[in-house]
Specification:
single chain, about 240 residues, mainly alpha
């Protein structure tokens, strides 16, 4: 009879760990988005923004630094301390804010605000679905990943073709892909929270930072696709 209370206590502890893990993921994701938004707004409102817009080389350097940082963080996450992972995530969010500042020169504030609200609603709904659904979304994730790869290849081709029709189609496909990934990645992170070592603060912090980065990218790309699809140019 003594086994049942022990099993129940472990079940409760595991549930509490999963809840704490997901709260950490959403908390750090929100921090990253706020940092990105703050840096983007400050950059656009300062002479630095104009300098970025007038220097394609500087923009390329920043984009390359972004890719390098996100790849390094994803690849080395299991070897990093919790603090190092957090600092790298914050640095990536700030770099993204620098490059994202260009949207304030291209789109109206109304369009940016509307795209953000719609993206938040879509992301929130699909993330909740990923948390509560009993359906295994692994198959959908594989399909979405293939769609993402095809979309990236088409975007590279369109960079040379410069087709407005293809840009519209790619933005529409991007909305579908990142909406679906929001649910898939959330479910994957929930499973990660169920297997993270109980009481291992470093492992939990690493997992929450990696999860925050994953959902941050889903949300940000969904927002950008919606902005490209429906955004109005700045007067």
């Amino acid at each position: 009879m003594a086994e049942y209370p022990t099993y129940g206590a472990r079940t409760v502890a595991r549930a509490e760990t999963v809840n704490a893990f997901m709260r950490g993921v959403y908390g750090w994701m929100s921090f990253g988005l706020l940092l990105t938004a703050g840096v983007a707004w400050f950059t656009a409102a300062s002479p630095l923004g104009m300098s970025l817009m007038q220097s394609p080389v500087l923009v390329l350097v920043l984009v390359a630094a972004q890719f390098g940082l996100v790849i390094a963080l994803s690849a080395a996450i299991h070897r990093l301390s919790g603090t190092a992972a957090t600092v790298m995530f914050a640095a990536y969010s700030a770099l993204t804010g620098l490059t994202l500042s260009s949207i304030f020169f291209v789109y109206s504030m109304t369009s940016i605000f509307q795209a953000f609200i719609v993206a938040a609603g879509m992301f929130g709904s699909m993330s909740i679905y990923g948390l509560v659904t009993k359906r295994d979304l692994t198959g959908m994730g594989s399909f979405l990943f293939m769609g993402l790869i095809g979309m990236l290849i088409a975007m590279v081709v369109n960079a040379f073709v410069q087709s407005s029709a293809m840009s519209f189609v790619l933005s529409a496909v991007g909305v579908l892909v990142f909406t679906g990934l929001s649910a898939y990645d959330t479910q994957k992170l929930k499973y990660m929270g169920e297997t993270v070592p109980l009481g291992d603060g470093t492992a939990i912090r690493r997992g929450t930072i990696l999860g925050a980065l994953t959902l941050y990218l889903d949300f940000l790309n969904l927002f950008l696709m919606l902005l490209r699809l429906f955004g109005s140019n700045r007067d």
